[in-house]
Amino acid sequence: MAEHHLPPEPGHHHKGGKGVHADDLKPARRRGYGYYGHDRGSSGLLRTLCFLVLVILLLAGITALVLYLVYRPTGPAFAVNSIAVYSISNVAASSAAPGAPSAVAASFQCSLVIRNPSGRASARYDRLTAYVVYRGEAITAPAQLPPLAQDPDSAVVVAPVIGAGAGAPPVPVSHDTAAALANDVSYGVVSLRVVLLGRVRFVSGPFRRGWRSMYARCDLLVGVRKGPGVGAAGVPEAPLLGNPSCDVEI
Fold first, then answer.
1. Is 199 found in the same domain as 87?
2. Cβ(76)–Cβ(116) under 8 Å?
3. Which helix H or strand E contains 65, and what residues bound it?
4. What phi, psi does 215 have (nearest 5°)?
5. Helix (H) or strand (E) segment spanning residue 156
6. What is the pLDDT of residue 181?
7. In this structure, are residues 137 and 102 in contact, taking their beta carbons and an 8 Å threshold?
8. Do 135 and 163 lie in a common domain?
């Protein structure tokens, strides 16, 4: 009789060899360890670059702050040393224009001290204009001052004649202002304000700032006395009473 041989059952050893499992016959899957490692390396490099950029920006900011604190300019300071009155008188309003304001003819010479307190920044002044105010109204025509250059930590004295000297042109003012000025002059004490307008520019080391508007005002209490040769309402000497105060806005 012919012999029939059955195939070996799974899990049985055949001639000392290992059995074949069904999963072993499936194609092997590729492992992605190499790709994951590449992604980790790219992200680490990106984080390092971001950290370096942040450090550079931080150092640049600290350097800029230090330079700003070292070379930062301080606004100028003003003071009034003395003032001389060349003329101060009321001018009658024209009868042809009823209700027209009165006028005042006044002229002064004011000694101003401009101080630059910045130790590292020089100052440049331009378009300087000075005039005198009484009770909120200008009583002199504007006087133009020449440009001025100032070294760091220095003081400059300017003495502009405000109002064109003894022949000062009349400046329109209200009736109340004219009457109050005449009364103060007769009493011997006048409260005045010297105003200085212009622009200033600071140069500090390698930095050059742009032009900035400047507005300085000095409040004075002036003692007036009648003097010969000036007129009934004018006095050449005007001592300062108290301590004049000056404010500067830039």
1. yes
2. yes
3. helix 33-71
4. -135, 110
5. strand 154-158
6. 92
7. no
8. yes
Q: Which amino acid is at 132?
A: V
The C-alpha angle 249, 135, 128, rounded to 5 degrees, equals 40
pLDDT at 121: 86
| pLDDT value of position 180 | 92
Tell me, yes or no, whether 18 lies in a domain.
no
Specify whether 88 is located in the same domain as 169.
yes
Question: 76: closest CA among 236, 229, 214, 244?
Answer: 214
pLDDT of residue 95: 41
pLDDT at 102: 86
Question: What is the rounded distance in angstroms from the CA atom of residue 150 to the CA atom of residue 154?
Answer: 7
DSSP-assigned beta bridge partners for residue 17: 14
106 in a structural domain: yes
Q: Are 64 and 83 found together in one domain?
A: no
Q: Which domain holds residue 40?
A: 34-71
Of 87, 106, 246, the closest CA to residue 177 belongs to 106
With tokens 């800029």, the residue in question is 64
Q: What are phi and psi of 159, to 5 degrees?
A: -135, 70
Kindly tell me the burial class for residue 221, based on how many C-beta atoms sit within 10 Å of its own C-beta (0-12, 13-18, 19 or more).
Answer: middle
CA 22 – CA 228 distance, rounded (Å): 132
Chunked into runs of 10 residues, the chain (250 residues) has average pLDDT values of: 53 51 54 53 80 88 74 84 87 54 88 90 93 94 92 92 77 90 90 95 77 94 65 57 88
d(CA 168, CA 182): 17
CA-CA distance, 189 to 239, in Å (whole number)? 10
In 10 A of CB 130, how many CB atoms?
23
